Amino acid sequence: MSTESPTPPSPFSPEVRTAVVDHMNGDHPDDNLLIVRALGGQPDASAAVMTGYHEQGATFSATVGGTDIEVTVPWAVPIEERATIRHEVVRMYQESCAALGVTPRGEGSH
């Protein structure tokens, strides 16, 4: 008998999930890498792409030492609405910049 609870269904349609991932990989590839290095515990990552997300965190494929690994970075709050995704990704980006000593972009460029 399993004691694990089943994963709840996602509140996001496949189209929304694809749009978020495509936006992050197309418009913010450097942000993905900063997030994986600072918050994903992979300071030596040389590349990172978002592969998906769920209510608990964002998932990335990161290249570390020539090997691709999966890295999940947890959200600070549960993600139940699309607007919260943007808020959380911006928070991750800003925290990553602070942790790595990188000057963040100006407000409104996310």
Map the helices and strands.
Blueprint lengths: L13 H14 L1 H10 L6 E9 L3 E8 L2 E8 L7 H19 L10
Antiparallel strand pairs: 1-2, 2-3
What does this structure look like?
The protein has helices at residues 14-27, 29-38, 82-100, and strands spanning 45-53, 57-64, 67-74. The protein is an alpha+beta fold and 110 residues long. It has a single domain, classed as Alpha-Beta Barrel (Split barrel-like), CATH 3.20.180.10. A 3-stranded antiparallel β-sheet has the order 1-2-3. Strand 1 and strand 2 form a beta hairpin. Residues 1-8 have low confidence and may be disordered.
CATH architecture identity: Alpha-Beta Barrel
Calculate Rg over CA atoms.
14 Å
**Structural class by secondary-structure content:** alpha+beta
State the helix count: 3
The 3D shape can be described as globular
Summarize model confidence as the mean pLDDT.
88
| Alpha carbon gap, first and last residue | 46 Å
- Extract low-pLDDT stretches: 1-8
What amount of the residues lies in strands? Answer: 15-25%
